[in-house]
Amino acid sequence: MLLKVDNVSVSYGAVEALKAVSLAVSGAEIVAVLGANGAGKTTLLKAISGLVPIKSGSILYDGQKLHELPAHVIARLGVVHIPEGRKVFATLTVEENLNLGGYGCAKEEVQKAKARVFQLFPVLKERRRQLAGTLSGGEQQMLAIGRGLMRSPKLMLLDEPSLGLAPLLVDQVFATILQINKDGVPILLVEQNARKALSIANQAYILEVGRIVLAGAARELAADERVRQAYLGGVTYERRLRAKESRATGNTPDPRG
Amino acid sequence: MRLLGKRPTWLYKQPVRWAFLAATIALLLSFPFWASRYWIDVGFYVGLYALLGLGLNVILGEVGLFNLGHAAFWALGAYTTAILNVRLGIPTLALLPLSALVAGGCAWLISSPIIHLRGDYLCIVTIALGEIVRLVLINNPAGLTGGPNGVIGIARPVFLGHVIRTPLDFYFLVWAMVALCAFALRQLQRSRIGRAWNYIREDEIAAEAMGVDVRSLKLLAFVLGAALAGLAGNIFAAKMRMVSPDSFTFMESCLMFCIVLLGGMGSIPGTILGAALVVLFPEIFRPVAQYRLLFFGLALAATMYFRPGGLWPRRRAVEFTAGRAARP
Ligand SMILES: Nc1ncnc2c1ncn2[C@@H]1O[C@H](COP(=O)(O)OP(=O)(O)O)[C@@H](O)[C@H]1O
Ligand SMILES: [Mg+2]
Q1: B296 band by pLDDT with thresholds 50, 70 and 90
Q2: What is the DSSP letter of B166?
Q3: What is the ipTM of this complex?
Q4: Do A149 and A109 meet the contact criterion of CB atoms below 8 Å apart?
Q5: What CA–CA distance (Å, rounded) separates A30 from B43?
Q6: How far is CA A185 from the centre of its chain?
Q7: Which of A77, A226, B76, B109 is the 20 to 30 Å CA partner of A32?
Q8: How many angstroms separate the CA atoms of A140 and A142, rounded?
């Protein structure tokens, strides 16, 4: 097991955001954690990357107790957290943002990693001298992912990469995630866009108000009646999907909206 | 607004920068030879506040830590020099590094438990610290600080057999220090440490998640900034030949804060310009003495309105506002 989260609880004062959550990521798979707003998805990723302290339980990564390490050490172990809302450094250029992703690495390594990122996201190469704050939402998401790739991650924690993106861009971002995973990076993906996430994940967990209520292979969950009702929009959604496929244009409105 | 807010980007072209630097150095070097003793003294104070501003700029400008108690570290440097010189007879100039060390060391002790505080919380705690240090000095612990009267009779510094005594001597002493520090800080700005400081200022959480050791780097900035204030304290003590608690009031911390904000956060030339303005302002407005603070407040408010990045912002800030303007 690469990552093993065992009975982890996290509280913000009186609010218990995670209640004895357990999950695991192995080998080179994509594991999705699905849940509505406020379910505790972000908190889960923050707990793993050391940005919030856990109250009880343990987080093991490659034999190390992550919950006892400070965040910057965890990042240097290769656990890369790509935060919600993109969080690029708006006042730095695209290239400087990428350099920051390789903070603490050797110069040649940074150069090599940058070439890889530019290959994956040609648009970032075009805009390398532009300030990150002036990029579009989709470009900022690509930059955030690219910045995470700079450290040659051994585990990538992705927080709602599709948040606030147009449907076409969502497809693009998910295709990239799949590509990164194929290149050998295990990914823990947190999403509200359940259909998309289930379509690329191997394993999935459903988080509801701080608790894991369902877990299993992504394909099985996608077929599960409860999941379809609660997260895939049930019958209405299926109908819209069919309408979309029959029209076969990319211009359908965002199914969630 | 339009006219004043326009960014003169040509100011940042390399040859213009060099020419400007050369002109400034020429002015600073020749100034004492045509100015009166009085104005040389004013020039000394510009240098002194530039030194204090450069220290605070590391903390406030580079890392974005709101420190409104910087005068405390200045006081620690000054008292270290005063006490050790008067009691033990250690030469004043030899105490220069020690004053920096004491101020920096105390900063480390004081800031370790509070460095995780954010924004205004840190601000309030540093105000309290500044006051605590001042009150301790007034209360004359172990008879060391001389209470409200302070410590008197500090020996003149001697540099290579030359006694530093005239305003001219002190003018050169302080500006040599400013030049040295400005150069060193500029190198630091461009190093990995400097970049990490700026990342922390922009977004602490994201920086931490990228593997930046936020806590240690914040502490380093605090200690370094305080050490510079300690240097300034040593020179100040040597110049005044006495130290007393009322030189290190909350108002002084506020002035240093203004210097950094006025000049431009994280900008070394900006900080020096800010120091010049803050020191020269009361001199220029001496005829309307009782309205001085009013004018000062107005000037600050106007700067914040017309040039929110400061009078001489760091190059980065200029580009950013330009970029934003292009994308309304
Ligand atoms: N810093 C915080 N302080 C207090 N409560 C918080 C904080 N961050 C999150 N919460 C609460 O914890 C719960 C889980 O939040 P979060 O992990 O952000 O959910 P999600 O990412 O699934 O939308 C929510 O009820 C939220 O209000
Ligand atoms: Mg979230």
Answers
A1: confident
A2: S
A3: 0.74
A4: no
A5: 65
A6: 12
A7: A77
A8: 5
DSSP string, B278-308: HHHHHHHTGGGGGGHHHHHHHHHHHHHHH-T
Sequence-distant (6+) residues with CB within 8 A of B288 are: B295
Count the Cβ atoms, other than its own, within 10 Å of residue A230: 17
Both tokens assigned to B175: 């500006």
Q: Which residues are B298's β-sheet partners? A: none
Whether A173 contacts A162, CB under 8 Å: yes
Instruction: From the CA of A160, give the closest atom in ligand 1.
Output: 21
Amino acid at A153: P
Q: Do B205 and A134 touch (CB under 8 A)?
A: no
CA distance A68 to A113: 29
* Per-residue model confidence as pLDDT tens digits over A46-82: 999 999 999 999 999 998 999 999 999 999 899 999 9
For ligand 1, pick from A9, A10, A11, A12 the residue to mutate: most ligand atoms within 8 Å of CB: A12
d(CA A76, CA A50): 12
Report the alpha-carbon distance of residue B219 to residue B299 in Å, rounded.
Answer: 33
- Cβ separation A104–B211 shorter than 8 A: yes
B151/A47 Cα distance (integer angstroms): 53
CB A23 within 8 A of CB A205: yes
Please list, in sequence order, all residues whose beta carbon lies within 8 angstroms of the beta carbon of residue B314, skipping any fewer than 6 positions away: B264, B265, B266, B267, B270
The CA distances from residue A130 to A134, A135, A235, B107, in Å, are 7, 8, 45, 38
Going by pLDDT thresholds of 50, 70 and 90, the confidence category of residue B182 is very high
Q: So what CATH class is B42-326?
A: mainly alpha
Atom of ligand 1 nearest to the CA of A13: 4
> What whole-number distance in Å separates Cα of residue A96 and Cα of residue B319?
14
B226: Cβ contacts below 8 Å, ≥ 6 apart:
B55, B59, B70, B73, B76, B103, B104, B106, B107
Whether the model clears a pTM of 0.90, i.e. scores above it, the answer is no
Cα separation, A112 vs A124, in Å, equals 15
Chain B residues near residue A76 by CB distance under 8 angstroms:
211
Residue B165 has pLDDT above 90, yes or no: no
Instruction: Report the alpha-carbon distance of residue B164 to residue B93 in Å, rounded.
Output: 10
For residue A131, what is the DSSP state? B
Alpha-carbon separation of residue B285 from B16, B139, B261, B281 (angstroms): 32, 36, 21, 6
Evaluate: CB of A46 within 6 angstroms of ligand 1.
Answer: no
The domain segmentation of chain B, as residue ranges, is 42-326
Angle at B188 between CA B183 and CA B193, to 5 degrees: 175
Helix ranges, B35-69 (H): 37-56
Q: What is the pLDDT of residues A108-160, one digit of tens each?
A: 889 999 999 999 999 999 998 898 888 888 899 999 999 999 988 999 999 99
The type of residue at B280 is L
